[in-house]
Amino acid sequence: MNQAILHPENQTFIQEYLDKDTSQLIFKKAPNSNVSMAELVAQIEAKKRCKTKLPTWYQTPLIYYPTKLQIEQTSSELTANYKAQLVSGAKLLDATGGFGVDSYYFSKQVKQVVHCEINSQLSELVNYNLKQLQITNIETVAANGLLYLQNQNTHFNWIYLDPSRRNDSKGKVFFLSDCLPNVPEALPILFNYSPNLLIKTAPLLDISAGIKELEHVKEIHVVAVNNDVKELLWVLEKNTNKPVSIITTNLTKTATQRFRFWLKDEANTQAAYSVPRHYLYEPNAAILKSGAFNTIAQAFNCYKLEQHTHLYTHQKLLEFPGRTFSITATHPYTKKNIKALGIKKANISTRNFPESVADIRKKFKIADGGTSYLFFTTNMHQERIVIECKKVTEN
């Protein structure tokens, strides 16, 4: 940490450029000789990214920001607050502490939090910021979390880990064993010091792959913010062998959509099918990620359009966790039919359809936007169709 960044003239400079382009600043002279312009620009760019993601930090005076990459990799306050509701007790170890956002929210639910961060500079920065935030029940330790556990021989009510993907891991579907720390390999050590583990992974991780790698999975939380899946949370309980529960949550500006199901039930549930009725339902992103394709149909007593078409329909208006559309018409998919509609502007989606949105727009010269929605999909009779509709409710 360069303490000179905290001097009033430098803080004023940072504040002044938060809403301005910093690209030309690198060629200018810093207002204080103890700080380089590169350092000030780094603080400005990092703080900019906190305005909506980390408003508590953004609004607190004299916060020292890490790199913008570290800001991008940290949890948002929304998701950190969500995961804090999953823990309780006297002591929690945040074994992969990072910028400390998760620790900050854990400290509101747990009496004492230990924040371990292997990067000593980041650990120092977090320790300083916690004082600015007036948090007194978090201890910061510049150390590897797993080594700290074994050296201290201290037991915790919960251990939290946010493993990072190794730089040499390739491909879109990755495994927990591809991450650091290697959680599957470390499970015996972790369970030796706590009966409860909370593990955060990126949405990229395949749920079935994660279940195979881990032991004693109690719950999986699929967390989305404004219909964008941000993280998977794995709750592990020592020695539990109960069926896995999956909780999907979509945090929106106006509501929180939750849907819970048992993983074993999805495989044993058969959805009913129907041609499009009066309303069309599109599950939110958290539900789609969870794979609750049949249980969601059963829970809301609605119909799937086709086995691999994850769109649903019903003659009645339902309080469905996702987007709801009123169907205007359903058309067989032919070039002649679509051109005859004369639609020049529409919101287009494809589900279980061989052509991309870009290709469809180009073929039929349909611009993006407007109030009309077109779903290009496949029905229960294996026919390609276009559902023309209007939006009733947002995610």
From TrEMBL:
Keywords: Methyltransferase, Transferase. The keyword Transferase applies. Coiled coil: none annotated. One of its GO terms (molecular function) is methyltransferase activity. Residues 279-321 form the PG-1098 ferredoxin-like domain. GO terms for biological process: methylation. InterPro entries: PG_1098_Fer (IPR054168), SAM-dependent_MTases_sf (IPR029063), Thump-like (IPR041497). Pfam families: PG_1098_Fer (PF22013), Thump_like (PF18096). Residues 322-391 form the THUMP-like domain. This is Class I SAM-dependent methyltransferase. It comes from Bizionia sediminis.
